Write a sequence for this structure.
């Protein structure tokens, strides 16, 4: 739970809210929609952390997600864990 809270703080302090909202689609998908799409596994935490750091396109449409190369891998994984927890699922 502490890692989830740290991830929530990191997301709130970042520019994520420019394109994402917890429950509503803005430019990118709502974080709860991401949580519903991906099972809460270590592999998906690592995958989404990579998306946070490197950016990407094509999964949710053609608008690219900006890269965040200054975010540390460990912090990106905390952020991903927070997002994946939003549908009530726990990591397995």
């Amino acid at each position: 739970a502490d890692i989830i809270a740290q991830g929530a703080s990191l997301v709130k302090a970042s520019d994520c809210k420019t394109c994402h909202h917890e429950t509503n689609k803005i430019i990118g998908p709502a974080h709860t929609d991401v949580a519903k799409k991906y099972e809460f596994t270590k592999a998906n935490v690592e995958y989404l952390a990579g998306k946070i750091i490197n950016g990407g396109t094509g999964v949710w449409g053609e608008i690219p997600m900006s890269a965040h190369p200054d975010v540390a891998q460990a912090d990106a994984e905390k952020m991903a864990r927070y997002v994946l927890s939003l549908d009530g699922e726990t990591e397995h």
